[in-house]
Design brief:
heterodimer, A: 112 residues, mainly beta, 10 strands, B: mainly beta, seven-stranded mixed β-sheet, four-stranded antiparallel β-sheet
């Protein structure tokens, strides 16, 4: 079962920051939060991940609340090419390995 | 470095037939995972192979099976196809072993299977 809840869709104006929320209220202490996106007709693409601290890379920033029950993915200057479905995922530890538990995703539409 | 490749890209089969899909991971990656993506169920994990051994398995019937070869290439097989098996089948490779590494998975473009 999915461990994350996301809004089904969001709009954002081109050039503005896109803030995508995710709820993961049942997350355990050793479970990471991952974000992937899927542009139409392509395979998902890794964006960023984190455990407790906020993270930033060349694509996005990830803000995780102190209680770890929710997080926000920030695309600082959205472009039309950022239109995609964004998945917030919990990485669950299983024995000596891990598994990504995918949610339903948010369809982000960037408007000119 | 070449990305993950999947063949074929598109496939049409009829009910009752079987199908084999192929995935070549990124060079040096030893973990290959398979996912089924449908509009209604989203992305669902099928199984993962690492060094020719199945390491994880999702909740799919035994009609879905897979294997991995010594060169890390992987195949998945679906027998006795049903209409509900129509989906995009995605393969992802990872260079990490067990719980080490950052767990990033690199996805291929997928194989679109249509069952008539």
């Amino acid at each position: 079962d999915a461990k994350t809840t996301q809004p089904p869709s969001m709009d954002c104006a081109e050039g503005r920051a896109a803030n995508l929320p995710c709820n993961h209220s049942t997350i355990s202490g050793n479970e990471y939060v991952y974000w992937y996106r899927q542009i139409h007709s392509q395979g998902p693409q890794y964006i960023i991940h984190g455990l407790k601290n906020n993270e930033t890379n060349e694509m996005a920033s990830l803000i995780i609340t102190e209680d770890r029950k929710s997080s926000t993915l920030i695309l600082p200057h959205a472009t039309l090419r950022d239109t995609a479905v964004y998945y917030c995922i919990v990485r669950v530890a299983m024995d000596s390995n891990y598994q990504l538990i995918w949610g339903a995703g948010t369809k982000l539409i960037i408007k000119p | 470095k070449a990305g993950v490749t999947q063949t074929p890209r598109y496939l049409i089969k009829t009910r009752g037939q079987q199908v084999t899909l192929s995935c070549s991971p990124i060079s040096g990656h030893r973990s290959v995972s398979w996912y089924q993506q449908t509009p209604g169920q989203g992305l669902q994990f099928l199984f993962e192979y690492f060094s020719e051994t199945q390491r994880n398995k999702g909740n799919f019937p035994g009609r879905f099976s897979g294997r991995q070869f010594s060169n890390s290439r992987s195949e998945m097989n679906v027998s006795t196809l049903e209409l509900g098996d129509s989906a995009l089948y995605l393969c992802a490779s990872s260079g990490t072993s067990g719980r080490t590494g950052r767990g990033e998975q690199f996805f291929g473009p997928g194989t679109r299977l249509t069952v008539l």
